[in-house]
Design brief:
heterodimer, A: about 260 residues, alpha/beta, 9 helices, B: about 300 residues, mainly alpha, ABC transporter involved in vitamin B12 uptake, BtuC, two-stranded antiparallel ribbon, 2 strands, about 0% strand, globular, binds adenosine-5'-diphosphate, binds magnesium ion
Chain lengths: ~260, ~300
């Protein structure tokens, strides 16, 4: 489904701020995989998603989606295949436009835009139905400006927008990190519902180990631009938070040992 | 009594000039308000429209036929700014300044000299005058209203279409637009094209109305346009739909010209006007900050 082949990415190459973020990074996803991604700050999780989405171009390696090499496609072309929700609730929606106008933009993600009306009557009915699923009462506020919504409402709306046209791959980058625990839980539940219902292939970055274990069929842990742990199936189901913590400790110990040797 | 009739005459002329300049303001609204992009190209494009129209009239073209040429060349100038900004990554304001400066030379090349007089030439205004016998300022006003209404209608339609929505969204949140499969580069270039096309049309109409084109006629266009947009917003409020907002922008332009006419009658020199305009715009743009400061205290 998705293949990342030997991806390398270095920021600010050749300067004192040089930062190798991804090193010969390989990742293969199967159709309908729901993969959760964990790893410390700066591990390269967002960079990986951004390279899939075309926000950044990789220095080497290729991105293959559904058998199609999309490495050279600009972000807006790849967007036709991808659904994305960002950490910042402001990033996924247009604040000065109405809820229905935002949905109408999302409805046309994989279509050529022309001089037809930006939103039709039939669509409005569809949006009303879809919004009902969120159980946030947004279906009664189709014309309201999105800027009036709370962070949680905006994330739920962004999620709906990302999946309004079925994406080949859904990319979620800590999309509940900016929300209070209760809202985060609700948005995660909606996420699972939508992913299961539509059989979506999904990559979900989270900082919450419990969520990483609870959701999805495969879990990967990243550290310094590499995958250091990759579990799926029964093994993942029986995983406990302590196991993940141990993994984290072992890598930080290894790091500490390296440092001692170097010193 | 003399003073009063002088004032009324001046105001009448001001309103018709204001409506013709209002077409420029409609163009500027697209970049400044819809795309959130302060585009300085317009200072050059306004004169470009005047230059193209005037020189074509002198060469014998029908004055109405010159207008599409003014629009097309203006759109081309907007495209250049757009490409400088989006493809070559030159910051927005600088990209506009570069186009504006380049247009100064280009406009003189087009006219062959810094200005072209249309004395004795048939303009859109004299054509209508021959048929109706109305005065220049009345004809200019009618011409301005017809064009403004038509353009507001077209803009209302266009910004409701799929592409128009994508342009509006681009001014709002570029990340979202790219994530939803539209090229923000294309949307910006398209917006700049339409905007500068309208500004150029406005320049052509103003040149025909005043009977000459001058390379300096566009100086201060951006700031005058901003003043008009702001005056329109302050007086008519940000209510109702897009068409209402566009109409208030044209009326804002007319009111701006009336204010200018009044202060001139009161004895200010015309060379003081740029200072006055800058003060109006600076005051209006600082309203939100001042409101906040007052609220905090
Ligand atoms: N645009 C950028 N320019 C320079 N450095 C960057 C950029 N984006 C990310 N980085 C750096 O790359 C590293 C990995 O970042 P990121 O992928 O955001 O990590 P994560 O999402 O796992 O926390 C960090 O050290 C970060 O500072
Ligand atoms: Mg991150």
């Amino acid at each position: 489904m998705l293949k990342l082949l030997k991806i390398n990415k270095t920021f600010n190459a050749g300067t004192i701020n040089e930062k190798k973020v991804l090193v010969d990074f390989d990742l293969h996803l199967k159709t309908e995989d729901f993969v959760t991604v964990i790893g410390g700050n700066g591990a390269g999780k967002s960079t990986m998603l951004n390279i899939i989405a075309g926000v950044h171009t990789s220095d080497a390696g290729s991105v293959v989606l559904d058998g199609q090499d999309i490495t050279k496609d600009p972000e807006y072309i790849r967007a036709k295949h991808l659904g994305r929700v960002f950490q910042d609730p402001m990033m996924g929606t247009a604040a000065n436009m109405g809820i229905e106008e935002n949905l109408a933009m999302a409805f046309r993600r994989n279509r050529k835009r022309g001089l037809r009306w930006g939103i039709t009557h039939e669509e409005r009915a569809l949006y009303g139905e879809k919004l009902k699923i969120l159980e946030l009462g947004l279906e009664a506020r189709l014309k309201s400006k999105v800027g009036l919504l709370s962070g949680g409402q905006r994330q739920a709306l962004t999620l709906l927008m990302a999946t309004l046209q079925k994406p080949k791959l859904l990319l979620l980058d800590e999309h509940t990190a900016a929300l209070d625990p209760k809202t985060a839980r609700k948005v995660l539940e909606i996420t699972e519902e939508i992913v299961t219902e539509n059989k979506l292939t999904t990559l979900m970055v989270t900082h919450n180990m419990k969520d990483a274990i609870r959701y999805g069929n495969r879990l990967i842990m990243m550290n310094e631009g590499r995958i250091i742990y990759d579990v799926s199936g029964e093994e993942k189901k029986s995983l406990r938070v302590e196991d993940l913590l141990k993994k984290f400790e072992s890598i930080s110990e290894a790091g500490a040992n390296d440092r001692m040797i170097l010193a | 009594m003399d003073n009063l009739s002088g004032m009324i005459m001046a105001l009448q002329g001001a309103v018709s000039q204001g409506v013709l300049w209002g077409i420029m303001t409609l163009g500027l609204y697209i970049t400044f308000k819809v795309l959130d992009y302060p585009d300085l190209t317009v200072d050059g494009t306004f004169a470009l429209g005047g230059a193209v129209s005037a020189i074509l009239i002198v060469k014998g073209m029908d004055p109405f036929l010159t207008l599409p040429f003014a629009v097309a060349t203006g759109a081309l100038a907007g495209t250049v700014t757009g490409v400088l900004n989006t493809k070559l990554k030159i910051p927005g304001i600088l990209a506009g300044i570069l186009s504006m400066i380049a247009l100064y030379s280009i406009n003189i090349r087009i006219m062959g000299k810094p200005n072209v007089a249309l004395l004795g030439e048939a303009t859109a205004v004299t054509r209508i005058m021959d048929v109706t016998g109305l005065s220049n300022s009345v004809i200019s006003l009618l011409l301005g209203i017809v064009f403004a209404v038509a353009i507001i209608g077209l803009m209302y339609w266009f910004f409701g279409t799929e592409i128009g929505c994508a342009i509006r969204a681009t001014g709002n949140n570029e990340y979202m637009v790219r994530a939803l499969g539209a090229s923000t580069d294309q949307m910006k270039i398209l917006g700049l094209m339409i905007s500068n096309g309208l500004v150029s049309l406005s320049g052509a109409l103003v040149a025909q109305s005043q009977g000459y084109a001058d390379v300096g006629m566009g100086t201060g266009t951006l700031v005058i346009g901003l003043a008009s947009i702001i005056i329109g917003e302050v007086i008519f409020g940000r209510r109702f739909n897009f068409a209402y907002k566009l109409m208030s922008v044209v009326l804002g332009s007319a009111i701006y010209r009336m204010i200018i006419a009044i202060v001139l009658q009161l004895g200010l020199k015309s060379s003081d006007l740029k200072l006055l305009t800058a003060v109006i715009v600076a005051m209006a743009l600082s309203i939100p900050v001042v409101k906040k400061m007052v609220a905090v205290r």
